[in-house]
Each structure stands twice: as structure tokens, then as C-alpha cells.
Amino acid sequence: MCLLAGIDVRTFFAREAKAAPGRTFRRHLTTISKMIDQGGTFSEGLAASGDYFPILFCEMVHVGEQSGHLGEVLKQLANHYQNQVTLQRNFLASISWPIVQLFLAVGIVGFVIWIMGVISGPGQKPIDPLGFGLIGNAGLTKYLTFVGIIVIALAIAIRAAMRGLLWTRSLQRLVLRIPKIGPALQTVALARLAWVMSQTMNTSMDLRVSLKLSLQSTRNARYIDRIARIDAEIAKGNSIYEAFCDAGCFPHDFLESVHVGEQSGNLVESMAHLSSIYQEQARAALAFLAALGGYIVWIAIAAIIILVIFRLAFFYLGALNGAGLG
């Protein structure tokens, strides 16, 4: 918005570099600011920042500079990323309470492990009602280490999947085969694909580059795996519709919108309209995934509680039998 208002780009980045939150973000903005001060461009500053910024963002900025419409391009990107953030926040808000409950259940197990060490006291035989072999401070340390490893592994896997890293694609393909979950994730991916196509194809960007960026933006293995195949079809002179049909991974309504858009010469408008439809469907899909995630967390909580109850029950029965035999 500042660039649209006519503020000098050098002044804008110098100010933003000083006020940016977070050390890493501030460092990259400072790099961009220095590049511009030295006579470089915004896109050159982004390139100097490595892979910190998304490829789509860097390419769109480059196109915006080349066309002289950088301000409009940045406004469109801001709206897109703000929408993505809103969807993510709504999803996280929906599953936050089940996650809190899960951590409470895990914490209770840790408390039982620790308190058994306190109750046993020095010189006494340790009491292990859970039967895990974990008692007192040492047992709690091992338990928390195990839980921490699981949490870190899940966080790394989720982060890698969101960035579309290669080693997560096998897992993505498996998840996409699950009924209800696969179609919901596909809807979210198609919403991104349609929007990026509507934006990149409205510029001077090369068609093959545009399609590659659009498919990469889905962060979905089903579409990323088809990039080379689609690019080869476009290189042969085939239409986008023919290339997408040959890929064999797009739903009928999406293909029809592409076909009608190409035939009428209004592909950008068709993709923009389809994007708005998929965005609404994506909100519903994320709401479903959030509800499903909540149920899965509650099942995990129930499993932990049932396990603890049965462990305590067997320990109590064993103590009674031992006392009777005595």
C-alpha cells in the first residue's frame, strides 16, 4: 500500500528493516534495503536473501518490476498471503483446545511418574503402578525426553510437508488416498492453484514458468509430481487443457473451467472466478479437517486415560493378590 501511495522504495525498506519483528526477518529486510541503496532492485535483494522468501513471491515481484506495476502485484500478494494466514489461524483455533487437553493428559502421566518417586522415599522399594519402569526424577526425565522427541518429529514433518519437501511426498500420496481427507486437501490445493494461475497469467511471465509456479504453489504431491509431464506437453505446443487432461489428476470442474477459459480467451477471469469458489470450499474443507483433527486428539486422550486406568487397576489387583497370598 505504501508503494501504491508513491512512497520511495528506498525509504520504505530502510524504515521497514528497522521496525521488522524477529531477528531473521529483520536481517533479510536489511539485505534488501542495502541492495536497493546500492542501486539494485527489489527482486535482486530477494535473490540475495537466499530461499527465505517463497519462489512465487520472488517471481511475482520480478514481473511487477518489469511491467511497472509492482505496487499492484504486492497488493495482490498481500491479500493472498493474508487469506492463507487467516485460514491457518482458523484451523489452529479449532484444534487448540483438544491439543491443550492432550498436553494435560500427558502432563498427568508425567506427574504420576514423578510423584511415585517422592512417595517411595530413600531406601524403600520403588512403586511403579504404571508398569513403565519410570519412577521419580530420572523416570520423568526419560518420559519428557520421549515426548519431546515425538513432538519435535511431528513438528518437523508438518513443516516439511507445508514447504513441499521431496521426502514428504510419499507420505502426502498416502494421505491423499484416505477418503474424506484426500478430497479436502485437494480442494485446498486447487484453491491455491487457481489463484496463482489467475495472477501469473495476467502478466508477461512465460507460460511454462507460470504453470510451474502455479503447480508448485499447491504444495501437494499429486500436482507437483505432474510438473515435468505438463511442461513437456506445453513444450510440444499443446493447450493447457490438453496438458492438464494428460496429467490425469485434475477434477472435471477444474478442467472444464480451463477449457472454457482457453476457448473464450478469458482464462485469467475463469481462474479468478474458480479461485473464489474453491476458496469457499477450502474454508469448509479446513473446518472438516480441524474437526477430524480434534476427534483424533480426543481418541489419543481417551487411549492414554484408558491405558493409565488399566495399569493402575492391574497394579491394585496385583497388590491385593499379593497381600492375600501373604
Oligomeric assembly: single chain
Mass-distribution shape: elongated
Q: What portion of the residues fall into strands of 2 or more residues? A: under 5%
Question: What is the number of independent domains?
Answer: 3
Mean pLDDT: 82
Query: Terminal Cα separation, in Å?
Result: 82 Å
* Major β-sheet profile: none
| Count of individual helical segments | 14
The H-and-E topology, N to C, reads as HHHHHHHHHHHHHH
Secondary structure topology:
Layout (H helix, E strand, L loop, with lengths): L8 H11 L3 H15 L4 H7 L6 H13 L2 H51 L15 H28 L5 H8 L4 H20 L6 H10 L4 H4 L2 H9 L4 H8 L4 H13 L2 H59 L1
Using brief descriptors, characterize the structure shown.
326 residues, 3 domains, mainly alpha, 0% strand, Receptor-associated Protein
Describe this protein's structure:
The structure is a single chain. With about 325 residues, the protein is an all-alpha fold. The chain folds into three domains: about 10-80, no CATH class; about 80-175 and about 300-320, no CATH class; about 180-285, Type II secretion system (T2SS), domain F (Receptor-associated Protein). It is built from 14 helices and no strands. The chain has helices at about 10-20, 25-35, 40-50, 55-65, 70-120, 135-165, 170-175, 180-200, 205-215, 220-225, 225-235, 240-245, 250-265, 265-325. Helix 4 packs antiparallel against helix 5 (about 70-120) and helix 13 (about 250-265) packs antiparallel against helix 14. It is elongated. The mean pLDDT is about 80.
